[in-house]
Amino acid sequence: MYLKDADNTRYILKKHESSNVVLCPMHKSEDVSMSVEDISEMQAEIIHYKRNGFQAYKGIIPFAFDHYTKIITLKTALARLKGRCISGLKSDSETISRDRYNLLRLLVTDYVNQRPSRVSSGFTQREVIAMLYGTLWYKHIKNESFSRKIALLLESLVITGDLSEEGKVYYVQGQAITTMVEYEKEDQRVTHQQKMQKKITRFMFAITLSTLLIILVLLSMAGVVDLAAVWQKILQIKPLRFLMNFI
């Protein structure tokens, strides 16, 4: 369990003694004793390490709730499964572009909302891979693929000025916000165009269907087509037989 006070001093919960708790300040050797009431005002984070990663909780209440219901764990698993399915359905070019944006958004979000367990505002390549694929990513059969892909994405973000690199540690820059805004605008424009294209397609289909109906009515009025007979034949068509004949 990690704690952070108003002065951004970070602690690790060491043990509990009656109504007090013993905290270990990060990068310091002296322990600190505080009351439970004092730590209730701090920002808390509970990290539960699991098989292929970890689950972070923003306090004891979410942790206890998930311990008995597993709702947060299930939600996280479904979100990861959804991400894998979407990545598998996308084309390579779109996946690379979207992965680049998602990686940048992940780093910006983690930088802005720096958790009590993090003491540095920078990210190493191994930390980024662990954030995306879990702490045991190096045991996966595709660990080399993960490492190379993230290395290329990070290098790309450094080239565009979204990140800066100092001693193999990457730091978020202000250019990242501009890049994210431009990507979201472009994504909204493409989505709007796709919606307009669907509406135009539906409109053209409706016009075509209306034209066919008008032609049938005119032919019926001219005595060329007997609509009643046509309708009876349509009702007599068996879907399975029609499908087999069509195939």
Observed structural traits:
alpha+beta; three-stranded antiparallel β-sheet; six-stranded antiparallel β-sheet; 3 domains; 247 residues; Arc Repressor Mutant, subunit A; single chain
Any overview of this molecule?
Keywords: Membrane, Transmembrane, Transmembrane helix. The strands form two sheets. The protein has a six-stranded antiparallel sheet with strand order 4-3-2-1-5-6. The model has no long low-confidence stretch (mean pLDDT 79). By secondary structure, the protein is an alpha+beta fold. The chain folds into three domains: 41 residues, no CATH class; 81 residues, Winged helix-like DNA-binding domain superfamily/Winged helix DNA-binding domain (Arc Repressor Mutant, subunit A); 54 residues, no CATH class. The protein has nine helices and nine strands.
